[in-house]
Design a protein that fits this description.
Blueprint: H1 8-20, H2 23-30, H3 34-48, E1 53-55, E2 60-62, H4 64-89, E3 96-102, H5 107-121, E4 125-131, H6 134-143, E5 148-153, E6 160-174, E7 197-199, H7 204-213, H8 216-221, E8 223-225, H9 229-237, E9 243-246, H10 247-251, E10 261-264, E11 271-279, H11 285-298
Parallel strand pairs: 3-4, 3-5, 7-8
Antiparallel strand pairs: 1-2, 5-11, 6-9, 6-10, 6-11
Helix pairs in contact: 1-2, 1-3, 1-4, 2-3
Length: 299
Amino acid sequence: MATYLPTLKQLQYLAALQDHGHFGRAAEACFVTQSTLSAGIRELETLIGVTLVERTRRVVRFTPLGDRIADKARRVLREAEELGDMARAAGRPLSGEMRMSVIPTIAPFMLPRILPRLRRDYPDLKLFLREEPSGAACEGLHHGRADCVLLALPFACGEVASQALFDDRLFVAGQPGEMGNIDRAMPPSEIDETRLLLLEDGHCLKDHALSACARPELRAEATMLGTSLHTIVQMIDNGLGLTMLPEMALNAGILDHTSLVARPLDAANPSRKIALVWRRGSPREKDFQLLATALAEAV
């Protein structure tokens, strides 16, 4: 008896629909028409004999079985992609396409320093970059949207392999009048918790800064803002408080053209660890290790 199996294209359509929750946006992501995507999912449902998606005019709702099959579809698609990865890994090192997610507290400060060297040393590497917070980046890694992630540890990223690049020390920055003796490191006890501005939840730098300070009241009293480090620096420069910045941001000139000064944090663990992570068991592991070494050398 003939066995009819879902096609990779059908599985791609299903996973995209779950990602976007909308037929039109899912079709755009797959570079097909909406009718093509809808027909492909209906063919899949007919093939396996179950309803995966409940369709109404306003809502796309996956059935419980549909959610499980979509999750399985992502794993199958990832395995299929790794077939190509195995072939590329057997060829020239760091060649072909690679998708790397980078967190926002690293991307603007580190990428300008490393990309020219990568282009020079590995001209056959086509590196596609995506900037997103740590949680979304790790989710994208496990769903196959990214091949590797450049992020700061510690962070719970699931079952991954990693290679540390360097330690990135934390500094306290503010107006000279409220920074005390700028010639020595600042202990957490000198930080005014009512004046501290940090990034909102979702940015691991906030958690790294609060953990380094080991003062529970900072988490309760500090103001969390959903913005970028550059915006926070502008607020601090206008006298709205103080903040904590990574050394790479200072080296990139984030305080240039401001009146602010920075003091290194005097704490037991005053740094975050910058690392490259990838899915454990990836056939491109040697490529990722080579990339991590190149990144560390470039910095």
